[in-house]
Design goal:
The two termini are 90 Å apart. A hairpin with a 2-residue loop joins strand 32 and strand 33. The chain is flat. The chain is mainly beta and 1444 residues long. It folds into 11 domains: 186 residues, Immunoglobulin-like (Sandwich), CATH 2.60.40; 135 residues, Immunoglobulin-like (Sandwich); 144 residues, Sandwich (Immunoglobulin-like); 132 residues, Immunoglobulin-like, CATH 2.60.40.740; 138 residues, Sandwich (Immunoglobulin-like), CATH 2.60.40; 149 residues, Immunoglobulin-like (Sandwich); 145 residues, Immunoglobulin-like (Sandwich), CATH 2.60.40; 110 residues, Sandwich (Immunoglobulin-like), CATH 2.60.40; and more. The strands form 22 sheets. Strands 15, 16, 19, 20, 22 and 23 form a 6-stranded antiparallel beta sheet that branches. Strands 34, 35, 37, 38, 39 and 42 form a 6-stranded antiparallel beta sheet that branches. GO terms for molecular function: collagen binding. Pfam families: Collagen_bind, MucBP, SpaA. This is Cell wall protein.
């Protein structure tokens, strides 16, 4: 009655609480998208389910009402109670209901994105270490919309993606049936939900790429995504570059470098460097003229070593401020120029190491270093670089003036900045001319050239310098400032040559000085104009190196000025030594007529006489006076042609005198060029269009007089000689233009000419020519070859030919020429993303152009494209098709025709692929174009399309019959695509029933959990009186359902207490038999089982143990008993307690026990075990009972201990033996041994032996006894705890030999031997020997013997284990002894023959003493034998009786 009253009060309180629920809660419970009130067609149970579900989710109230009337009344009261809320509250709730119905069109400000995942296309998250993206790498973005326990209101939501995410095009998608989404190119995501979703979780997947960051952008990026509830998710991404590092060597000066600054960049890719990683640097020097390298320490000093950490940009440049590392971050070991840096801390920054290599001064002065190489091993990767040294000890500037007699002009040359000094903007070069005749000079033809300085004394002339390099506006004055205006960065060290002319109006003799200077130095030149009307010329074409002769020309008064001279003095210079008689030719030209030659007559117009240093010409007649004639004197002189070398000088000087005028003079100097010493010169040129090499050989410029000039020219195998191209041509001259020696030729020489070959043998690749009539004439030979191997794999091919020239085997020379020609096949690949459609890429591939005579044959193009980062995803590119290809001839630009000019295939065949290993990833995207005709070059254009964002690498390989060449290009596609996923809404209907009766149960409370996280979704429902409950309006999917409260009197369902996965059901499933999930509950159980298991110490079950059971409650102990009907009862009398016996499994089970504390008390132990009456307590709890869990305990018993007695006796006498040692060994563990020794009673006791199987071993026998080899098995078990055994031992027999000798040691009788038990004694006497008398006994005096003698009488002997020998010594007597004439033989005594020992049983025959009578020894012996036999029998039968 009290319980009923309690529940009535509870129901009233619940109804009051229900009436306080606001109208808004009521509306949210019953209003939905499809219905606004409970339909009249809806069953009462469904309506009830809706109400209970809503209430349970809010308050988890258990409704115990079970009738339909009560439910209807509750609904009605709830509505009435809601309407009783104050009017203002009612109005608010009504407006909220109307607002909810319009939310599909309402703009929401809430951020629905609850999580973001940024991954590569394979789904692996990008990070800063293991999965770093490339620049503009493809990405996959997963946006989670909503969470498991969130209710998403209908409406429109907006979300902005970070600017780092590139969106190339607008995309859109759906979220199942509940909504849609769009994403535009600005990164704005718009999400629309058409209806409110409870527990909705959706996902939008977007595939795109990162934006193309600028080159100066940092590799480390932080991309932040805003999340719901003002949260955010950040991705720290470290983009990756290719390459590990570099070594940069920078000279402080291009020439005469004294400091080389070294910068070693490491970890440019910004991997994570672990502690103890090292940078090992070694410097080496290569000296000029040396073949190997050596350590740089002898020439270089390393200073200013620093280590920095710095960031890296997308373009691979260092950015930001470098951080100087300290000693706590790295260690430096320096051994001269060898450096080792060990990093102490982990870092992912770029590590930069810098230092200066200071070159020692003497190495610079001596110009001895060729290069400095630096080798670095960076975290296991090797890098190297080197810098070459150039030396420039040229002067800063030089000034030179050359007077041209013919033009009466001075050519001034200024070579400036030859020492490669830095020229600052505004540098001023001042040129000052000084002439004593004012304003006589006219300035013209200023030209400024570039000079290329390669080192000391190595300078070449370049082209004209740009006009903006120098301000020459002041030119034309006697003082001119040239201003440097080239604003170049870095500052220029260029050298220049200034060349200009000054024309002389007044030829009066004088000296003109020109000085040039700047802030660093100066130089000057002087030109002497006295005389200014004479010139001396060496005729280069006349040089005869064989005979040592050369022609000279002297020209006087070239301008036809009025002048007078009476004498011409010619002075020989270097190597010139004699005028050739009769070689002179002297003539003049009258003024106004330089064409009519007027010879002068020797002796009439002039005289010529040799001098020691030259010769003198004296003018005669009218030619001594003032004249305007131009005089020309030519002659031949000899020169020293022995041991002549390139660069040797020939010089000569001439001067005029007469009528007191200032002397006028001129000189000529000539340096011997190489072609005059080397026999000639060979040139080669190449016609790239025709593919032809033209070789020209100039021979005998030195005028050697050949007996027979022989020319052999073997053409190398990579060329093919054109036999018809061989020409014999005139050799005009060989010109040396600033080091560029050129063979100048003239007209063809025809047969019959002395210069035409007298023998011509032309083979395939060999030329043999003989010139037997050429004498000292010069000639040139020209022919053509064509490359025989082009096109080849190497782009450049060097061609060289050597012509061998001799004079019938002597005067030999080799004339060599070589030229490097681009004849290799080459592939050029270009790719660009289409500006119209980002999914398209336009590709162009072309070859280089081959010459006409060497076209491509069997040309094949193979092309494949894949991802530049193969680890990210599968390739998504593909060629559009054959229509996408445009193939052209490069020369004509004509389009080639498919099928006629080329074929194309898209399937890779390894056997048909000439590219071989040069093609990568051919199994993804591949095509091959086979050209059917020869071609000089082709261009292929085509398009590819991609479906996803990707960094595409395209490789093209051209092959022909002789060569192969590959090239590649990359493009970065950003193609944005996406999809949406999520769930619709459904319900999970449940029914709660009794497990046995299947009757519905109310009051069971269930809770909904997320399947993955197993977190509660906050939804709870309670079963009604029909057992029904349902989770409504949850997103479709699988959920974990748990029962958190069981109906009264029932246990929680075991499965649902842990949680069971159930899927939502839709309205379409309502007729499905499995639409409702039935959950059964078991009633609560009040009694349980207790169990005791009886085991030994090894855990083995023991049967036969007896126990009684006690129960303690409130300090009182009772004992379990059963009445006659077998019903349990409890008694205070222990003697009336029921005895439980353990079964074969050692178990005692007692059922029907209520919760409490119980004890088992052992009253009888199993056989062989010790009794342990200590109680074993068991606690039976309510929880154990309800879970049907038996309470089990164990009771262990110890085995009883056993013993073993060993009796030791003599085998024959059965007498107890002491001193025997026995060992008892456990068979289970042989290492466990027990050793005991028998006492005086012959007993050895082994006590407290655990039950087991043993082996008994005799390890030591008693003294005088043989060891008994036994291995007796002893079993100690419950049936035989105490064991006893007897061990018999046989005695050891000892032996004594008696030896008989006289006093001289001579044996006088046979040896006697007696045997007996070791340790026993026997009386013996020496035997009588005829003619002898016993004197003494000899025996060894061992310690044992001495000890024994202390206890034995003279006639006693003791048997020992070791054999004994006793020597009896006799002395001879003169009186024969009295002896018994006859001694009866006995079977026990054996005579020992001479030299042979025989055994005699002295135990049975007593040896007689000297003179002793032995008539009755038979009777004594017989009596002894009888007594012995009788004693033996008595002992035998006594022992046998004992054993029985």
């Amino acid at each position: 009655m009290k319980r009923q009253k309690f529940w009535i009060v509870m129901v009233l309180l619940l109804m009051i609480a229900n009436s306080l629920i606001p109208v808004v809660s009521f509306a949210e419970t019953f209003l939905s998208e499809n219905t606004s009130e409970i339909s009249t067609s809806t069953s009462t149970s469904e309506a009830l389910n809706t109400v209970i579900s809503s209430e349970s989710s809010e308050s988890a109230v258990i409704n115990e009402t079970s009738t339909e009337d009560t439910v209807a009344k509750q609904i009605e009261e709830s509505v009435v109670a809601s309407t009783e809320v104050p009017e203002k509250s009612a109005e608010t709730s009504t407006s909220e209901v109307k607002l909810e119905s319009r939310q599909a069109k309402a703009q929401q400000t809430e951020n629905l994105i609850t999580n973001v995942t940024l991954t590569d296309p394979k789904g692996v998250e990008y990070d800063t270490t293991t999965n770093r993206p490339q620049r503009q790498a493809p990405l996959k973005l997963s946006l989670q919309v909503g969470t498991e326990n969130q209710t998403i209101q209908a409406g429109t939501y907006e979300y902005q993606l970070p600017a780092d995410i590139a969106i190339s095009n607008n995309i859109s998608g759906r979220l199942e049936t509940v909504g849609s989404w769009t994403l535009d190119t600005t990164g704005k995501l718009t999400i629309i939900f058409n209806e409110t979703v409870v527990n909705g979780k959706y996902q939008i997947d977007i595939e795109t790429s990162f934006i193309p960051y600028s080159d100066d952008s940092d590799l480390l990026k932080t991309i932040t995504f805003s999340l719901a509830n003002n949260q955010e998710k950040k991705y720290e991404l470290l983009f990756k570059l290719s390459g590990e590092g570099s070594i940069n060597l920078k000279k402080n000066k291009n020439f005469n470098t004294d400091i080389v600054s070294t910068e070693i960049k490491t970890n440019i890719n910004r991997q994570t460097i672990q502690p103890n990683e090292t940078i090992v640097v070694k410097s080496k020097i290569n000296k000029n003229g040396a073949t190997g390298t050596e350590n740089a320490s002898a020439y270089v000093t390393v200073k200013n070593v620093k280590v920095f950490a710095q960031d890296v940009s997308m373009g691979g440049s260092l950015i930001g401020e470098p951080t100087l590392l300290g000693s706590e971050e790295y260690t430096l070991q320096q051994n001269n120029t060898d450096l080792t840096v060990t990093l102490k801390k982990e870092t992912n920054k770029a590590i930069i190491m810098t230092y200066d290599s200071v070159i020692k001064e003497e190495s610079i002065v001596n110009e001895e270093l060729y290069n400095l190489s630096t080798e670095a091993t960076i975290y296991g990767t090797s890098l190297s670089n080197y810098v070459y040294f150039q030396y420039n000890h040229n002067p800063h500037m030089t000034k030179k003036g050359e007077y041209n007699v013919k033009t009466n002009t001075i050519v001034w040359t200024i070579d400036y900045n030859l020492d490669s000094t830095e020229l600052a903007l505004g540098t001023k070069l001042t040129d000052i001319l000084t002439d004593e005749v004012p304003n006589d000079l006219t300035f013209s033809n200023l030209k400024i050239y570039n000079l290329y300085v390669y080192g000391t004394g190595s300078i070449s002339l370049g082209g004209l310098a740009p006009s903006n390099h120098w301000d020459t506006s002041g030119f034309g004055q006697y003082t001119t400032d040239y201003i440097y205006t080239n604003n170049q960065s870095p500052t220029s060290t260029a050298a220049y040559r200034f060349v200009y002319e000054t024309a002389i109006q007044n030829p009066s003799p004088r000296e003109i000085e020109n000085k040039v200077s700047d802030s660093l130095g100066s130089d000057d030149a002087k030109v002497n104009l006295a005389p200014s009307n004479i010139s001396k010329i060496l005729e280069e074409d006349s040089l005869d190196m064989t005979s040592g002769t050369v022609d000279w020309s002297i020209i006087v008064n070239n301008k036809h000025w009025g002048m007078q001279f009476s004498q011409m003095i010619d002075q020989f210079g270097e190597r010139v030594n004699e005028l050739v008689d009769g070689s002179e030719d002297f003539y003049y030209y009258a003024k106004g007529d330089d064409k009519t030659k007027h010879p002068l007559v020797a002796g009439q117009d002039y005289t010529i006489s040799k001098t020691s240093s030259g010769f003198t010409v004296n003018m005669l007649g009218i030619h001594q006076g003032i004249t305007t004639n131009k005089y020309v004197l030519t002659y031949t002189s000899k020169f020293d042609n022995t041991d002549i070398k390139v660069g040797d000088e020939l010089s000569n000087k001439v001067s005029l005198t007469g009528n007191g005028n200032i002397p006028m003079e001129a000189s000529a100097t000539f340096n011997i060029p190489s072609f005059l010493v080397e026999g000639g010169k060979k040139n080669v040129s190449y016609n790239s269009n025709e593919g032809v090499l033209t070789w020209t050989i100039g021979i005998n410029e030195e005028r050697h007089k050949y007996k027979n000039l022989i020319l052999n020219d073997d053409i190398e195998s990579i060329q093919k000689l054109d036999k018809n191209s061989i020409e014999i041509v005139e050799l005009d001259k060989i010109v040396n233009d600033n080091g560029n020696v050129t063979v100048m030729t003239g007209a063809k020489i025809q047969p019959g000419d002395d210069r035409y070959p007298t023998v011509m043998e032309i083979k395939d690749n060999q030329i043999h020519l003989e010139f037997s009539t050429i004498g000292n004439k010069k000639v040139a030979v020209r022919y053509k070859t064509a490359p025989s191997t082009a096109p080849v794999s190497d782009y450049y091919t060097k061609f060289s030919n050597i012509a061998k020239v001799s004079d019938e085997g002597s005067y030999t020379h080799e004339l060599k020429a070589e030229l490097t020609v681009p004849l290799g096949i080459n592939t050029y690949k270009i790719g660009r993303v289409s500006t119209v459609d980002n999914k398209l890429a336009n590709w162009t591939i072309r070859t280089n152009i081959m010459p006409a005579n060497r076209p491509y044959k069997q040309l094949v193009l193979e092309d494949t494209f894949t991802l530049s980062d193969l680890s990210k995803a599968e390739n998504t590119n593909f060629v559009i098709g054959t229509d996408a290809f445009v193939v052209r001839d490069q020369l004509t630009n004509n389009i080639l025709r498919l099928g006629e000019d080329y074929d194309i295939t898209f399937t890779y065949d390894q056997d048909q692929s000439p590219a071989g290993s040069a093609i990568k990833s051919y199994d993804t995207n591949y095509f091959k174009i086979t050209f059917k005709k020869e071609t000089r070059g082709v261009t292929v254009e085509y398009q590819t399309v991609t479906t996803k964002s990707a960094n595409i690498r395209n490789t093209a390989v051209f092959t022909n019959d002789k060569a192969i060449k590959a090239d590649w290009a990359t493009v970065n596609h950003t193609v944005t695509s996406g999809s949406g996923s999520g769930k619709g809404v459904g319900q999970i209907p449940l029914k709660k029933v009794d497990a046995q009766t299947q009757q519905p149960l109310s009051g069971a409370v269930f809770e909904l959990f997320d399947k993955e996280s197993q977190q509660s979704l906050g939804l709870k429902i309670t079963s009604d009186q029909d057992g029904n409950a349902a989770f409504q309006s949850v997103a479709e999917g699988e959920y974990l359902v748990k029962e958190i409260t069981a109906p009264d009197g029932y246990k929680l369902s075991e499965d649902y207490e842990k949680g069971v996965l159930l899927s939502t059901k839709s309205d379409d499933d309502i007729n499905d038999p499995n639409y409702v999930t039935t959950i059964e509950n078991e009633r609560i159980i009040t009694t349980g089982d207790i169990e005791l298991k009886k085991v030994d110490t090894d855990g083995q079950a023991l049967s036969g143990a007896e126990f009684i059971l006690s129960h303690s409650e409130q300090g009182q102990t009772t004992f379990y008993q059963e009445n006659e009907q077998g019903q349990p009862n409890w008694t205070a009398n222990q003697n009336e307690a029921k005895v439980f016996t353990s079964n074969d499994e050692g178990l005692i089970l007692v059922s029907g026990m209520s919760a409490g504390t119980y004890s088992f008390i052992e009253t009888k132990a199993p056989a062989g075990y010790q009794l342990d009456s200590t109680p074993v307590s068991l606690e039976l709890t309510k929880e154990k009972i309800e879970s049907k869990t038996k309470v089990t305990e164990r009771k262990e018993n110890q085995l009883l201990l056993g013993s073993l007695r060993v009796n030791k006796i003599d085998l024959e006498t059965k007498q107890a033996l002491s001193g025997a040692e026995f060992t008892l060994v456990s068979q289970a563990d042989p290492d466990k041994k027990i050793t005991k020794t028998t006492n005086k009673a012959g007993i050895a006791e082994f006590k407290d032996l655990p039950q087991a199987t043993y082996t008994l071993i005799e390890t030591k026998a008693p003294v005088g006894y043989l060891l008994k080899e036994i291995g007796e098995i002893i079993e100690i078990n419950p049936e035989h705890l105490n064991r006893e055994t007897t061990i018999e031992n046989a005695p050891i027999a000892g032996e004594i030999k008696f030896h008989h000798i006289d006093t001289n040691g001579k044996e006088i009788a046979d040896d006697d031997i007696i045997k007996g038990k070791v340790g026993t004694t026997q009386k013996v006497q020496p035997k009588e020997i005829k003619g002898y008398r016993f004197k003494e006994k000899q025996q060894s005096a061992s310690r044992l013997r001495v000890n024994l003698d202390q206890f034995l009488s003279t006639d006693d002997v003791m048997f020992t284990e070791a054999p004994q020998t006793i020597v009896y010594v006799y002395e001879q007597v003169s009186v024969p002894p009295i002896v018994d004439p006859t001694i009866p033989k006995e079977t026990d005594v054996t005579k020992i023959k001479s030299k042979t020992t025989k055994t005699t049983s002295l135990a049975k025959k007593k040896l007689p003493r000297t003179n002793e009578q032995t008539e009755y020894w038979y009777s004594v012996l017989g009596n002894s034998v009888l007594v012995s036999l009788l004693g033996y029998c008595v002992i035998y039968y006594y022992r046998k009786k004992q054993l029985d």
